[in-house]
Amino acid sequence: MWPFTRTPAPPLDPAEGDPTTRALHDALTSNDWAAAEAVLHGVPDADDRAHHLSRISELPDLWPALGSWVADAAGDPLPLTVRGAYAIGWAWQARTAARAKYVTKEQFQEFFRRLRLAEDDLDQAIALDAGEVTARAFLVLSARGRQVEPDEAAERFAAVVDRHPHHCFAHQHRLQYLCRKWFGSDDEMFGFARASFAAAPDGSLLGALVPDAHVERSMDDRGDYWTTSEVRDELHAAAARSVFHADYRPRAGSVWAMNLFAYAFSMTGDRQAAAACFAALGDRVTEYPWTYDTVLASPGKAYARHRAKAVAV
């Protein structure tokens, strides 16, 4: 019997089933700064570290407690980076994910106030350590909310990739900045996704930029977009050189990448490719892109529905 039938709608796990992220959550929620420091210092890659930190934004009431860590560790860029990363998600909690016309003036004011606090922390971390890549990566993320000009957004991204050329987290959020719904265009978004992946090594998570771009494009074309041979062929080529490649190794961010491919293959009707993605994921569903499902509002329910179709092949 297929093992997923007992859990038709897997819950969203803020840690994405990652033991390192879970350990970081446990350390931060218990205000065990030494343990949090040990977890993060145990992650040598700045891209992996950024992904783990990106998952702390849903932890409740951390801002005041993180202030004590920053105060107790004056001169240390790590707690500033952690608090800055947290504050970006904290800012979006104030704004909510609603369309701008449904966000109140007071919500916007609090949103921008919290983003300024986040960037102040990240800037201080960089001032203390010019080689700090993780703080720079979160400035790529905050560029959208702060509505920075294109030149500055490009400079923020360049500051990361100059130090870590294939930094997936930075690429992920640079692509979002370049979306038509933010500050770019379809041509800019696809050009960036394709060029970034072309320059990446085999097995890289940057292959997921391709389905990510198609997901964003499909929101403006809900007709036959996913059924075209050009879309299907590009998705297969991207998967073949990334998550389906022999050199691919699961790492922080893999759940994000595999969910994107699972969604995209499901949309194209390629059940075999989708089933391979679902098999790798198990119940590790992410909110994005499943919230874009047009039938079910719950990401878990949408994930379960598409998975059931795929594994019924």
TrEMBL record:
**Highest taxon, organism lineage:** Bacteria
Question: By what name is this protein known?
Answer: DUF4034 domain-containing protein
Annotated organism of origin: Asanoa ishikariensis
